[in-house]
Amino acid sequence: MTAIYDFQAETITGKNQPLSDYKGKVLLIVNTASKCGFTPQYSDLQKLYEQYKGQGLEILAFPSNQFGEQEPGANSDVQEFCEINYGVNFPLFAKSDVRDETANPVFRYLTGAAPFEGFDTTQPSGKMLNTFLSEKMPHWMLDDSIKWNFTKFLVDREGRVIKRFESTVEPMDMIPDIEALL
């Protein structure tokens, strides 16, 4: 049986990072971008990290340029942007694709374990993103792949994917789910 710990990924500084190094931690794995309408979520992700790191939360960010080319810079540019603008000190990984045939294996695993269940269209941002993707990229709505930047996956201490949160879910709204696993 495959688990999140079976994967490794390249860090933003080019080192190979086995995800097994995070065994026993609660993980929040996020695909990110620096020039997205959801980019301000970095701020609340950093707040969550500071608040819960001591209790075993790790946030792993995977920048991607697949959605509107909203992560155009090099890995060093991404790292600098995150540190300067949001004080990010949680682990950042190298830019990679998170959907389609070229998707990072971590995200192929995550989307298989936690399929897309739709956007909350009662919220303005959910309605907007649902409409945009349905009109501009309708084929993206037909599978379980990542739909946009800042899709978040919550993984328990045993490495099981517990829940998927779409881009429109604010990080602070995930606190009850995170606390339940800590």
TrEMBL record:
GO terms for molecular function: peroxidase activity. The keyword Nucleotide-binding does not apply. It comes from the Bacteria. Residues 1-182 form the Thioredoxin domain. InterPro entries: Glutathione_peroxidase (IPR000889), GPX_AS (IPR029759), GPX_CS (IPR029760), Thioredoxin-like_sf (IPR036249), Thioredoxin_domain (IPR013766). The active site is at C36. The keyword Oxidoreductase applies. One of its GO terms (biological process) is cellular response to oxidative stress. PROSITE patterns: GLUTATHIONE_PEROXID_1, GLUTATHIONE_PEROXID_2, GLUTATHIONE_PEROXID_3, THIOREDOXIN_2. Keywords: Oxidoreductase, Peroxidase. Belongs to the glutathione peroxidase family. This is Glutathione peroxidase.
